[in-house]
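ENTRY TYPE: paired fold submission
RECORD: A
CONTENT: sequence, then C-alpha cells
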Amino acid sequence: MTARILVSDSLDEEGLNILKGSGLPVDEKVDLSEDQLCEIIGDYDCLIIRSGTKVTKKVIDAGKKLKVIGRAGVGVDNVDIPYATEKGILIMNTPAANIISAAEHSCAMLMSLARNIPFAHESMHKGEWKRSKYTGVELNGKVLGIVGVGRVGGEVAKRMRSFNMTLIGYDPYLPKEVADEVGVRLTTFEEVIQNADFMTIHTPLLPETKNMISMPQFKMMKPCVRIANVARGGIVNEDDLYTALKEKVIAGAAFDVWCNEPLLESDMKLLELDNLVTTPHLGASTAEAQERVAIEVAVAAVKYMKDGIITNAINAPRGKMDPETEAFVPLAERMGILAHQINGSNPVDGLEITYCGELAKKQTKMLTVSVVIGLLRNIIGPHNANIINALPVAKQKGIAIKESSTERSDDYANMIEVKVSSKEKKTTIRGTVFGEQPRLVGYNDFTFDAPMSGDMVFVSYKDSPGIIGAVGTVFGNNNINIAQMSVGRYNKDALMVLTVDQNVSAGVLGKIAEVTGTSDVKYADLVND
C-alpha cells in the first residue's frame, strides 16, 4: 500500500511541490484541533508540521501507521519525543535552515531598540511629531555582550562588528579559537552582564539556562543596557524583566520569544511598557527561511518514505544498525551525557572512545555518534544534536574526537571507555551492557557496577566507617529514595555511586558534602529533557 503524507501546518509552496512531485499521496489539512487530527492521523504514514500542530501522546497513539514526523523548523517542543521514539516513529527537523534569519532578526531588534523605531512609528501614525522624545543611542563604540556564541550568535557577531562595536561573549562550551574567528572575546557571564551596553541571547533553554537572567543579574547591569532575546522564552525571567523595565533598572529590551506563546492575559502587562520592543516569534519568519525549511523537510521526508534514507534525525534510528551493536546505543549516549555532566562546566576539547573486547571487531561508528550526541546534549540542547549533525557540531565546538579499539577487556566481554578532556580536567568512565541494561562499571581509578538510568549521585571521599550510613540518612531526611548503591575503592579513597528516584537539589548535595567531608559530590540526570 502506498504511503500517505499529511501536512497539518502551512508549508511553503516549494516544499509542497516536492512532496506532491514524489508520487506519494499528499493531503493538506491545517488548523486542526487535537481531536480532529486524531480522527484522521491513522490513515497517514508521514506527518509534516511546523509549530502549530501539537503531536501529543494521544495523537501518536491514534497514528497507528505513523512512521515519521517532519518538523519544518528547529524547535520540537510541540512533539512528545520520548513517546514517539518509544513507538518507533522517526522525528526529523531542519536545524540549520533558519540561522541567518534568526541572526538578522536579532540585529534588527537591537537596532530598532537603539533608535526607538517602533515607538516613533506608532507616534507618527497617531499624527504626532515628537523628535526629542525618541532620541536614540548609537551602536558605534559600544560593547555588545553575546550570551551563547554558537551558530546564530556567531552570525550576529559578524554583522555587529561592522558597527564598530566591541564584542564580548559568554559560552562555556566554545573554544577560544572559535570565538576569536568571529571577533568575540570570551569571558565570564558576570563580566558580560556587567560591562555590556547591548546584549543578545543565543542559548538553548536548558535547566541551567532557565531564568539565568533574573533580577540579581538585572541589578548588575549598566542602567543604559538594552537586551534582545530571539532564542527561547524562559531564559529571561519575564516577571523580573517587567520590573526591571518598569523601574528603569535597565534602559530597554527587545523580545521575540516568550514563556507562553501566544501570550496569556496575565502576560499583557509587558505590552504596556514603553521600552520593550516585541515581535511574535518571528526569528525564522522570512520568505527565504520558510522556503529553506519547507524544502529541507520535504526532501528528507521523501527520501525516508521512498528509500529509507534518514537525514536530520532527532531520535537516533535503530532499525538498520548492526544487531550486535544495537544494544550498546543507549549505553553510548548515556555515557556521553554522564561524561559531560560529571566533567563539569569547562569547555570540552577532547573526546576519546575505546571499544574493548568483542566490540573491537564490530562496526562502531554509530556508537561513536551516539556518545557525541549525549555529550552535546547539555551544550546545544537535548534535541539539537542528531546522527546527521553531531560530528560536525562537535568539530565546530573544537572537540577533537578519537576512536580506537582493543580486543583486550580484562573483566567484560564487551566494554566502552569514554575519556573527556578539557584544559583543566580529564574524566574517564567505563560501561557495558548486561541483559540489554546499560551499566556503569568504572569511573577514573574506581571499579564498581551500577545501572545507568535516571538520577545518579557520585560521592568521592576518604574511605572510613560511617560514611555510607551518613549519606543514606541525608537522603532519607529529604524523602529521596535510593534505588541502588555501589562502592568502589582505590588505595585509601572510595567512590559511592547511587541511583535515586528523584531529582537531587544543590542543597541536598551540599549536605552530603558536609557529612562526608568532601567537596567532590556530583549529580547527573540521564533522562530529563
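RECORD: B
CONTENT: sequence, then C-alpha cells
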Amino acid sequence: MSHPDLFGDLPSDGPATQAAAQPESPAARAAQLRDSLHHHAHAYYTLDAPEVPDAEYDRLFRALQALESAHPELLTPDSPTQRVGGQVLDAFAAVQHRVPMLSIRTETDTEASGAEAFDTRIRKELGLAASEPAVQYVAELKFDGLAMSLRYENGVLVQAATRGDGETGEEVTANIRTIGQIPLRLPLDAPAVLEVRGEVYMRRDDFEALNARQRQRIAAGTKGEKTFVNPRNAAAGAVRQLDSGIAAERPLSFFAYGLGDITQATEGGPQWTTHFEMLQQLKVWGFPVAEQTSCVNGSAGLVAFHQRMAAERDALPYDIDGVVYKVNDLALQARLGFVTREPRWAVAHKYPAQEEMTTVQAIDVQVGRTGKLTPVAKLAPVFVGGVTVTNATLHNELEARRKDVRVGDTVIVRRAGDVIPEVVSVVLDKRPPEAVPFTMMTHCPVCGSLAEREEGEADHRCTGGLFCSAQRKQAIWHFAHRRAMDIEGLGDKLVDQLVDSGQVHTLADLYRLQQADLANMDRMADKSAVNLLEALEKSKQTTLGRFLFSLGIRHVGEATAKELARHFGQLDAIMVASEDALLQVADVGPVVAHSIHTFFAQAHNRDVVQALRDAGITWAEGDALAPTDMPLAGITVVLTGTLQSMGRDEAKEKLEALGAKVAGSVSKKTHYVVAGAEAGSKLDKAQALGVPVLDDAGLALLLTGEKP
C-alpha cells in the first residue's frame, strides 16, 4: 500500500474494479484506475466500509504509477498517486491540519532486500561513501488502525482529528476522550501547543469480545447491529460514531509515533535531536509508545528488526501489517526532505498480505477425530500470508450461515501465521444468481451415522464414534486409556501405525492381534509386543463402569459411567433404557441421557459392543443397587498425598464401589480427607475447616464399610 495506515485487512471487492475487460488506450485505462482507487479510498476512509483487501488496492495503485511513468501526459492533479485519498463526512466538523498528515512510501518487496534498498537510497541521498558509518534508524511497528492527530493547548487536549485527505480531517474529540490511554492533560513542562500523531487501534481480544457482544445483540433482535470484519474496521467505526456513548462501549487503544504542530511557551523548553529522543519524551508526558520501537544501525539492523517482528507478529495482541523505518537524526531528516506526497527519510516495509480475494468452488464437510463436522470452503488457489491457500475453514453451520458463504461466491480469505485460513467475508456484488445457502448434512459423510447439533452448541457431531473411520484413532486411543480399559503400551503413535497399516479397523480387532502382526511396527521389539499382548489379555477382565467409559459416549465421563453401572447393574439394561429411565441416574441430565440413548439406538454401535463381548471382554454384573443401599452412600472423600497401602486410583475405585463420592477439592461438605505422605494444601484446608483426616489405617477401616 501507499502509506503505513492505509488499507489494512479489508473485506471485499467493489464494483469499480470489476470491468469486463481493460480499456485498450492508456488514457482510458488510467481513467479507470483513478476511478477505482478513488472509489475504494472513499469506501475505506469516508464510509468505513472497505471493499477490497490491501493487496488488491496495492496492485491497482502500482498499475497507475507504472502507467503514469510511461505516459507522463496522463498525470493529473487529482490522481491518487499525487495525494492522500479520503474525504470528510458532513456529519463531522472539518479540521485543517496545520502540519499536513502526509503518507509514507510503502516498500512492497517483503524480503530483506526491501530494507536494504531503503538504506541504499538514504545513503545515496546523503552522499555517504561505503566507508562511512552506518545510518541510524528508528524501527517501529506499522499498526493496522486509524491515524489520529491529538492537539494540546496549554497542556489540555482540545482537539482530536482523523487524517482525512492529509490536509483536512474530521473532528472526533468526544470519541477520542473515551480512550483511557490518551491523556486529557499534560505535565507543566509540555509545550504550549503540542500536536501528537499516532494510531487508534483495537486489540484482538477486545475485538473478539466486542463481536461476541454484537452477536448477542443480534440474537436478541436488536435492530441495526452487526459484527465487524476485523479490528481495524471496528476501531474506525468506533472513532466515527456520532454518539460518543457508543464509542465508549467499544474498547479502543492508542500508540503515539510522531508530532505535528509544536510551539514552545518559553525558551529552554524540551529539546531533542533525534526521533527516538522525541518518542521517549512522549512517554514521559504520558503517551503510550510501542515497546518494540528500536534504534538500529544500517541495513543489517533494519533486516533484523523486520525478521524479528515477522516472527513475533502473530503473538502480538494487536494487528500489524509491516514495520516502519525512519532516519533517527532530525537534522538528517531535514536534509532529506520530502518528495511530493511523502518524506524521503521514512518507509513502510510490508509483510505478505494476510487477506486475499478468491472464489469458492465447493463446500465440503470434514469429520474430525472427535466426530466434529466442519464445513470447509474449497477455493480457487490464492497466495495469501506467504503460502498458496486452497482450503478455508467455515468452522460450523452457524458460522457459515452467519457469513452466508455459498458455492460460487467471491470471498476474502485471511491467513495469519500458522492459523488455519478462514473466510472473512463475501463479496455480495459478485454473487452468482444460482448460489444457494449452505445447509449442514444430517448424516456423517464418512460413515453415514446420524449427525446432530446439541442444543446450545454450535458444532454438529457424528454419533458413530465406534464405527466411524474418521474417529477410529481417537476411539482406540480413548478405549486404551488407563482409566478405561487400561491397555498399557498402546499409545497414540502405535495406534496410528495399527490403523494406517490396516491391521485395526474396529476395537475388537485389537484382541485379534498376534505377535507377528506387531513385528513390523516401528520401535516394537519382541518384548514390547509380548507386553502389549499381555496387556490386551489382562484388559479383558474389567468392570462395567470402565467398559462404559471406554466406549467414548459423548458426555459420559468416568464418574457418569460408574453411576450408570451402579444404577442399572447390567449393560443390556443400559442399552435398552429410555431417556426417561436414564434421567433417574444421579448426575445424568437431558443432554447426557439423549447422548446415551442415541448411541445405543444405532445398530453399528451395538454391533461393536457385541464384537468386544465376543472377543472375551467380561465384567461382573448384578442387580441394580440403589445408592442408599451402599455402605458409604452420601459420603464425600478427598484423597491427597502418597498412600502406603495402595495407589490413589485403586483407593478411589474401592471407595466408589461402596457408594462414596471421591471429590478433587476440599469443602465444608467433605466428610473425610485421606492424607498420605507429602500431602499438601488439601490437608491444610481440611485442618482449617475441621474436616476429619484419615491415614492408611483409617482408609482401611472406611473400606470395610465402617465410618471412623
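NOTES ON RECORD B: DSSP finds 24 helices and 26 strands in the chain. Confidence is low (pLDDT under 50) at residues 1-20, 83-89.
STATUS: closed
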